[in-house]
Write a structure and sequence with these properties.
The complex is a heterodimer.
Chain A: E1 9-12, E2 18-23, E3 34-39, E4 46-49, E5 63-68, E6 71-76, E7 85-93, E8 98-101, E9 105-109
Parallel strand pairs in A: 1-9
Antiparallel strand pairs in A: 2-6, 3-4, 3-7, 5-6, 7-8, 7-9
Chain B: E1 3-7, E2 10-12, E3 18-25, E4 32-39, E5 45-51, E6 68-73, E7 78-83, E8 92-101, E9 112-113, E10 117-121
Parallel strand pairs in B: 2-10
Antiparallel strand pairs in B: 1-3, 3-7, 4-5, 4-8, 6-7, 8-9, 8-10
Amino acid sequence: QSVLTQPPSASGTPGQRVTISCSGSSSNIGENHVYWYQQLPGKAPKLLIGRNDQRPSGVPDRFSASKSGTSASLANSGLRSEDEADYYCAAWDDRLNGVVFGGGTKLTVL
Amino acid sequence: EVQLVESGGGLVQPGGSLRLSCAASGFTFSNYWMHWVRQTPGKGLVWVSRINTNGNNTPYADSVKGRFTISRDNTKNTLYLQMDSLTAEDTAVYYCARGGLVVSGFSLPFDYWGQGALVTVSS
């Protein structure tokens, strides 16, 4: 059971907007930055959204993130076939004194 | 170019030990938090441990506390994970990941990851 809660799956058609939620608590998302990672099949995870919702160089601007209270979300404003992957949220947890991840959301492009 | 290359994975019997290494290059290794993250095949990511610059700040996930030891050698630009008393539940791909600059106060994000080292615990 992951500390951060994500839906196990999400889907959409090419060009569609899709959002993935990440729910936590005051000790993690409520007090710390949320990060998002993309993991393509058979590959290592890749940082998608960093601190202050910054996108690393090379990450398309169709990806964006937001946070409100103890929840966060990742948005993809125009799905492409290459976006089919697993997506994970993560944050530092002050109570556990460690990093906590969501269980991951498998995004399918229909 | 930043590179993280893990080595030392393999098959080990329950109760056995294994040491993973992560060779870093392309950045000033000693300036960054470093982490280990694992992933059971077909499952999600689980954080294992973190280490600061001089190795005196090393929290662990409860599942590995007392059995795993993270360390680093800044002269060799290498991160280590000593794994003892291994069980089948430790079977996973182990990734080393670069955290934030120590001076930033933020131990995240994981902006670079290694390719992963598979550890299989089985008799």
